[in-house]
Amino acid sequence: xxxxxxxxxxxxFPDGTVAxxxxxxxxxxxxxxxxxxxxxxxxSTILRMIAGLxxxxxxxxxxxxxxxxxxxxxERGVAMVFQDFALYPHMSVGDNIGFPLKVSGQxxxxxxxxxxxxxxxxxxxxxxxxxxxxxxxxxxxxxGRAIVRRPRxxxxxxxxxxxxxxxxxxxxxxxxxxxRELGVTCVYVTHDQAEALTMADRVAILRRGVLQDVxxxxxVYGRPATLYVAAFLGSPRMSLMEATVKVVLDxxxxxxxxxxxxxxxxxxxxARAVARYHGERIVVGVRPEALLPVPMDSPGDVLRGRIRxxxxxxxxxxxxxxxxxxxxxxxxxxxxxNGRMPATRGLRKFIDRLVGSPAxxxxxxxxxxxxxxxxxxxxxxxxxxxxxxxxxxxxxxxHPLAVAVRTDALHFFEESGxxxxxxxx
Length: 425
Description:
Keywords: ATP-binding, Nucleotide-binding, Transport
Pfam family, one: ABC_tran
InterPro entries: AAA+_ATPase (IPR003593), ABC_transporter-like_ATP-bd (IPR003439), ABC_transporter-like_CS (IPR017871), ABC_transpr_MalK/UgpC-like (IPR047641), Mo/tungstate-bd_C_term_dom (IPR008995), OB_MalK-like (IPR040582), P-loop_NTPase (IPR027417)
Domain ABC transporter: 4-233
GO molecular function: ABC-type transporter activity; ATP binding; ATP hydrolysis activity
Oligomer: single chain
Number of strands: 20
Largest sheet: 10 strands, antiparallel
CATH superfamily of the largest domain: P-loop containing nucleotide triphosphate hydrolases
Shape: globular
């Protein structure tokens, strides 16, 4: 087993593109860490730097507390599993699995290959070639080739993305249990939040090369650190609405959403934190599980609106309800008009030196943070609450709908995108 540390790691490519920007991350011994984010957020680049296939532009990678800069990929004791399987088509399954043992000159290769293949359920196809296997079988062969080396560290780069959804569900359970059984540290890259939340001990969420949040699946889902994380995690998505704060001392804090209000009782500890924004706008997030359809004349914290459209999913229906509020929409991969990613101050001189001319990073960074707040570029549009209904709900687009809101389950963010710290309830 191995521990991994990233210390102020940044990666800038020769054209000045900032792929990874000042990432600090510790991965514990035997931990299953998932790097999650959309395409182009830098997660695969981080994996390649850990493996030694890329060198950090700034910062360092630590393995077991020691700098890894002088270690070759082979000396790092890592095994990688790739998205495209990377199997040798002219070799049998058994030869593919045993190839790392052959290269290292180990004896008793057949016994080790048989043991690993049996554990992965492919012991009966050892004589076949990769072209004769299903996608799931090829992925198991790729896993077997990594496992047979008995590495200290597994690095997996979207290993299930080429498989159909049912097979992905089966294999993610197998991979998760197998890695934990072996007790090997694993860094797993994916853009699929279902994989991240079901497999990980901890999840590290990236956006445009910047680490947004790190924590257990429960932590990052239940207390997202930024507006971007709140918008990215969850299916159905969290509804994010612009609210104006009004304080009625010793009674409640009102959240004005268009022409409607929600109230946080003054005895609720969160009211004190939100009250600091009296007269200002904040962003209020609410997940579908915090909403309950009720009769239109119900009292209490109820939002009323009209169903804009419906989605039927078999086991449930989703109603998208216009409540007259303003939604905050976070753009996952918004970039400046010239395509250049914003960079932290520590990278400016490096980029200037790399591209041979003064970089416009400082100007772009100011413009970006003025609009973005560092937590996720966002725009406005009419809000739609996502409400879960029964499979055959008896309502349709255009119908009125009232929903009771669990105010204890609301999420609060500054307009800049940072979470408002309301303490623990």
